[in-house]
Write a structure and sequence with these properties.
This protein has 492 residues and is α/β, with parallel strands linked by helices. The protein contains 15 helices and 18 strands. The chain folds into 2 domains: 189 residues, Spore Coat Polysaccharide Biosynthesis Protein SpsA, Chain A (Alpha-Beta Complex), CATH 3.90.550.10; 240 residues, Spore Coat Polysaccharide Biosynthesis Protein SpsA, Chain A, CATH 3.90.550.10. Strands 1, 2, 3, 4, 5, 6, 7, 8 and 9 form a 9-stranded mixed beta sheet that branches. Strands 10, 11, 12, 13, 14, 15, 16, 17 and 18 form a 9-stranded mixed beta sheet that branches.
């Protein structure tokens, strides 16, 4: 007899749920379906394969522990969608086959999206050790090896309301492979049709704070279990050991931002300080008039250093390296994107003061989201309150960014350098710095982050978004390995 599957799914309305149940039954390998729902929906469906579990949701630890007790099948199928599941022919048998062949704890696949009646493939990315994001996209259909699922559920010691599934995944990944099957095995109706730029800051929305606290706790436990958690013990630095002509340099890498570069430069030149600072604009072969704007402003202010690199293969990170290794670079290198503006005339002074007060190698500020006309837009203030002195550098391995504006003590940054890429370069260098040094925080807004159609991340297609996510997961994997090495007694 063929091995069988128990399927867990939320209640998505009587008609939708019945269509999903029919599809599951047609596979001929599902012999138990448990619908997780609230009290008001219990028993709306009568089917010998179906039972109901009254619960506060599939993300709850209590729910998962109960599900682990209810299902003794060799395979567990989790469907999280709220529209009818449309599995491809033999899709569930294929998931079972791969799970069995690889001894995987989790198997997931690519899928097809139905957006307003238009079908398009949605590939997902491979899971790796550094795939610690709690929003990692497995799709809405995931298969678990039954004993791995039950064992992980039985070991859930914390009672999470939101982080149960995340905790489950981390526990299973410590003992079993997590396998991505690059095959289009099912179709879903996509309801979140926002562009990539509109989704970018979901995780720092203040409304999600309770969720983030739980996710941090689950990730911290995991890091401790795999010997990658770092104690809040930092290498002390002396900020007066190096002599610099300038106390600070603002660095702006830019390419083809003729509509915004002038505003960005003027916001720097308006800064008021008691020390010398300059502005290094690394112009990466702009062709839209950006270079003319920079040259015009530089003629009137000697603080502007207009750099055009010799190389033509530089990303944003490579342009940053041009800036920090420039002989006129100051002691502290302060970031400003070519789209954005400082919020007032005291930003540079505030950042430099934070370096000395917090004795840190990097300072991360906060910013306000605005549209092109500088009007506030949701979610408003982005302050990354999840960065705490005790656990910030560990939680940084879970979240998708560290905040901005970012500023660096240049001797440390020159030693680490910045990857020559145009996405995630700031995240990579921030993780590397946090491995040894304290990162200071400023929770008041320091600049206005403009969201408009020409932002580089405004509307990414699925392949570019996957490429970005894969790179950040790789950076996390590298960082995990380095931190494990430190905890094993070898300094990195």
């Amino acid at each position: 007899m063929e091995k069988k599957i128990a399927c867990f799914m939320p209640f998505s309305g009587k008609e939708s749920s019945e269509l999903t149940i029919a599809a599951l039954k047609a596979s001929q390998v599902v012999d138990k379906i448990i619908i997780v729902s609230g009290k008001d929906t219990l028993h709306e469906i009568t089917d010998p394969l179906v039972s109901f579990l009254e619960s506060d949701g599939l993300t709850s630890s209590a729910t998962l522990r109960k599900l682990g007790e209810l299902a003794d099948q060799p395979y567990i199928l989790l469907y999280t969608g709220f529209f009818p599941l449309d599995p491809g022919i033999f899709a569930l048998k294929r998931l079972m086959q791969v799970c069995d062949d690889t001894s995987a704890g989790i198997v997931y696949s690519d899928y097809i999206e139905n957006k307003d009646g238009k079908l398009s493939p949605h590939p997902v990315i491979d899971y790796q050790e550094g795939s610690l994001r709690d929003d990692f996209n497995f799709g809405s259909l995931i298969m678990y090896e039954g004993s791995a699922f039950r064992d992980a559920c039985a070991k859930m010691e914390r009672d999470y309301k939101f982080a149960g599934l995340y905790d489950l995944r981390l526990k299973i990944s410590r003992q079993h492979p997590v396998i991505h099957l690059p095959e289009l095995l099912y179709t879903i109706v996509e309801t979140d049709t926002r562009r990539s730029g509109e989704k970018l800051h979901d995780y720092v929305n203040p409304r999600n704070r309770a969720v983030q606290i739980e996710m941090e706790a689950a990730c911290t436990d995991h890091l401790k279990m795999i010997n990658a958690w770092l104690k809040p013990e930092f290498t002390q630095i002396s900020l007066d050991n190096e002599n610099f002509k300038y106390e600070a340099s603002v660095i702006i890498p830019v390419k083809n931002r003729v509509r915004t570069i002038g505003d960005a430069i003027k916001s720097v030149l308006s800064q008021e300080t008691l020390f010398r600072f300059n502005l290094i604009v690394v112009d990466n072969y702009s062709s839209d008039g950006t270079s003319d704007v920079i040259r015009s402003l530089a003629r009137d202010d000697h603080r502007i250093i207009h750099v055009i690199p010799e190389r033509k293969d530089l990303g944003i990170g490579g342009c940053w390296n041009e800036g920090i290794f420039h002989p006129e670079c100051g002691k502290f290198a302060i970031q400003l994107d070519s789209d954005d503006m400082y919020i007032d005339n005291n930003v540079i002074a505030t950042i430099v003061r934070a370096f000395y007060e917090q004795n840190c190698a990097m300072v991360i500020g906060s910013y306000k989201m605005v549209n092109f006309n500088l009007e506030d837009i949701p979610p408003g203030l982005i302050d990354h309150r999840e960065w705490t002195p005790d656990n910030g550098r560990n939680n940084a391995l879970r979240i998708n960014g560290l905040g901005a504006p970012r500023s660096f003590y240049v001797p440390v940054l020159r030693n680490i350098r910045i990857p020559n890429v145009s996405y995630g370069e700031d995240y990579a260098v921030g993780l590397a710095i946090s491995r040894h040094y304290r990162i200071g925080r400023i929770y008041d807004p320091l600049y206005l982050c403009r969201r408009w159609d020409e932002n580089s991340d405004a509307a990414l297609d699925v392949h570019k978004a996957n490429s970005h996510d894969l790179y950040k997961d790789r950076i996390r994997t590298i960082e995990l390995l380095a931190r494990k090495k430190i905890n094993s007694g070898s300094r990195v």
